[in-house]
Design a protein that fits this description.
alpha+beta; 7 strands; 25% strand; single chain; 7-stranded antiparallel sheet
Length: 189
């Protein structure tokens, strides 16, 4: 079973909402979230650990290309210490391609900045829904060029990653990952 994922404005309940003024790019996707005790950070960790293979290949290509023009190699989305519990993460810690910026039980904000742009990502739980939002502020012309190529792909990556969220909990009460039987999520749509 795959949850319906829909595009929406960045939710007003998200702490990322107030960063929209002046943004070059922002988007948000939501899905229903059944009763689930996991924190927003645990949901993020449980999701990116199952990043579709095609997303990892695109990140590797991105890293190879942008490192030649002065942008940093970010690694892979799911590249982090999988043995480290969510409760041990603190703002400033690196989780895959992002730095953890703010942690709340209902929302986690991650991001990455350089002299060209500032990217922030939110995973926010509100009621029976989960939202993943992105806000990008561009500082230099190279950031605009970068976003020209990245934005269309980003719009496919976020829903594909969200499909990996299990809408339930394992018998031990801890977050568990579902095997997604949607073969389209492993191929570039």
């Amino acid at each position: 079973m795959t949850a319906t994922i829909s595009k929406q404005p960045v939710p007003a309940a998200s702490r990322l909402h107030r960063t929209i003024p002046g943004a070059h790019f922002h988007d948000s996707y939501r899905m229903a979230l059944a009763s689930d005790p996991r924190s927003a950070l645990q949901l993020y960790l449980d999701t990116v650990v199952r990043t579709p293979a095609w997303v990892d290949r695109l990140m590797a290509l991105r890293n190879a290309v942008v490192s030649r023009i002065g942008l940093k190699d970010l690694g892979a989305l799911g590249e982090f210490d999988r043995n480290k519990p969510a409760s041990a993460y603190r703002p400033g810690d690196r989780i895959g391609i992002f730095e953890l910026r703010h942690v709340f039980d209902d929302e986690v904000i991650l991001g990455d900045s350089d002299r060209h742009l500032d990217v922030q990502v939110s995973v926010c739980r509100e009621g029976g829904e989960l939202s993943m939002s992105t806000v990008v502020h561009v500082h230099r012309p190279l950031g605009h060029v970068y976003m020209f190529f990245v934005a269309p792909v980003h719009r496919r990556i976020v829903p594909a990653v969200m499909r990996r969220i299990r809408l339930g909990v394992g018998a031990d009460g801890a977050g568990a990952l579902a095997k997604v039987h949607d073969t389209m999520t492993d191929r570039l749509p």
